[in-house]
């Protein structure tokens, strides 16, 4: 097993350990968005401040367990952890977002409580985002003169109706109540268009604690782990701007980043040594992977990161089943990576190749496609909330010592998905998919 793969898995583990020890949740690469105007509340609460992390210590003895969309399915979730013999002192748990909503309210609250109390690292999902927005709206309403009293009265009426058995569908009850409550029209008009009060997302937002709200807000849109050459996102990450060919010089994977000219003066006027060849390659790969997030406009759009499923013929992004799956585009572009020289010399590229090194994306969101394993992407949403399966990607010491022996070519229809446990190529080594049934 190559040192690179050992380091890659170690970095994933140590990245999370660093986050735990510092008591914060960080977004490794900034998502650049425009803040709302002063008179327009920021309900989304996206993380915009850039964060950087130091190099990590070797923790290769720990396993990294990355779990797909849970959606409040508490029993399958805890069953999966049990099947994996999950031990917080020996394992690092990461989720791909959408940890709540769409299942039972109690299930969502149990999963959210567990994630918050145990400081589980993960990314924000599109359903998590809806809950964040509702809670931000509630906080905003409570800050307004008369807003707290309005909400208190509304919730009291709702709870009274529920206790009397008059509520079959909370959203329908709310619609009837709003139509009858003419004197509160000014308050109802403050609900953004398209939002459904007493929806699943609203009820979670109303019920969760301040600590749970802060945990949700702290979830980044993308985790970028440079030394593992891995991105973790809920919806996905595009490898290129779909408006241009992958070989267009403006595409991050079509150009070799430039390092500063050495020697470079440090603050104390000493000369910094020129990086060793291995260090130079690591820095160049970091710069190139970072530019995927910063230079491709779609990857700077939170809606895309949370919702993308495909790209249409007009190059627009869709969350529907239409278009080309973004993971197909990712694997197409990344499979053309042929490396590059680290000494600045131009390297002759064969036709159909790009001056880059491959990276892997681990994601959720696409339940309709099921467990979607390709060479350079791993889709972990296997439809647990639809009583299908809950899946996790496990990277452990055993996999570090067991290089993947099969053909590197994988596709989304691979028969492996029917098994409970199987191996896949991950970076330069092997990962393991563990899957359990979500049927009651």
From TrEMBL:
Regions annotated as coiled coil: none
SUPFAM superfamilies with a match to the protein in the record: Metallo-dependent phosphatases
Calcineurin-like phosphoesterase domain residues: 63-205
Matching InterPro entries: Ap4A_hydrolase, Calcineurin-like_PHP, Metallo-depent_PP-like
GO cellular component annotations of the record: cytoplasm
Gene Ontology molecular function terms on file: endopolyphosphatase activity; phosphatase activity
A Pfam family recorded for this sequence: Metallophos
An example Gene Ontology biological process: polyphosphate catabolic process
PANTHER family tied to this protein: METALLOPHOSPHOESTERASE, ZINC-DEPENDENT ENDOPOLYPHOSPHATASE
Name assigned to this protein: Metallo-dependent phosphatase-like protein
Source organism: Roridomyces roridus
């Amino acid at each position: 097993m190559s040192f690179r793969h050992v380091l890659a898995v170690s970095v994933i583990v140590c990245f999370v350990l660093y986050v735990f020890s510092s008591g914060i949740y960080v977004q490794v690469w900034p998502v650049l968005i425009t803040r709302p105007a002063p008179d327009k509340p920021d309900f989304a609460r996206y993380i915009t401040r850039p964060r950087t992390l130091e190099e990590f210590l070797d923790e290769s003895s720990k396993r990294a367990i990355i779990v797909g969309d849970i959606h409040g399915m508490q029993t399958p979730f805890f069953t999966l952890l049990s099947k994996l013999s999950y031990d917080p002192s020996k394992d690092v748990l990461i989720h791909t977002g959408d940890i709540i909503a769409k299942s039972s309210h109690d299930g969502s609250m149990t999963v959210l409580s567990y994630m918050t109390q145990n400081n589980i690292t993960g990314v924000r999902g599109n359903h998590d985002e809806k809950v964040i927005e509702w809670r931000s709206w509630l906080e905003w309403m409570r800050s307004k003169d008369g807003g707290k009293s309005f909400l208190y009265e509304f919730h009291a009426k709702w709870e009274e109706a529920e206790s009397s058995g008059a509520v079959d569908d909370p959203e329908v009850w709310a619609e009837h109540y709003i139509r009858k409550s003419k004197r509160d029209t000014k308050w109802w008009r403050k609900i953004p268009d398209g939002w459904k009060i007493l929806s699943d997302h609203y009820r979670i937002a109303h019920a969760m604690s301040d600590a749970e709200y802060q945990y949700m807000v702290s979830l980044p849109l993308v985790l970028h782990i440079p030394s593992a050459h891995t991105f973790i996102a809920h919806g996905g990450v595009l490898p290129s701007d779909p408006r241009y060919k992958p070989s267009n010089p403006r595409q991050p994977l079509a150009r070799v980043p430039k390092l500063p000219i050495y020697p470079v003066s440090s603050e104390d006027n000493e000369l910094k040594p020129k990086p060793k060849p291995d260090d130079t390659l690591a820095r160049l790969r970091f710069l190139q992977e970072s530019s995927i997030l910063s230079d491709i406009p779609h990857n700077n759009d939170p809606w895309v990161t949370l919702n993308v499923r495909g790209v249409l013929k007009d190059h627009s992004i869709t969350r529907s089943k239409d278009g080309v799956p973004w993971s197909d585009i990712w694997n197409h572009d990344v499979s053309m990576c042929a490396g590059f020289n680290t000494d600045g010399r131009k390297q002759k590229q064969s036709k159909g190749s790009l001056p880059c090194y491959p990276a892997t994306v681990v994601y959720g969101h696409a339940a309709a496609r099921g467990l979607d394993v390709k060479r350079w992407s791993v889709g972990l949403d296997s439809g647990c909330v639809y009583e299908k399966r809950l899946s996790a990607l496990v990277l452990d010491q055993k996999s570090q010592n067991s290089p993947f022996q099969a053909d590197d070519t994988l596709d989304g229809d691979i028969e492996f998905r029917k098994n409970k446990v199987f191996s896949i190529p991950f970076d330069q080594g092997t990962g393991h998919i563990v899957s359990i049934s979500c049927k009651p």
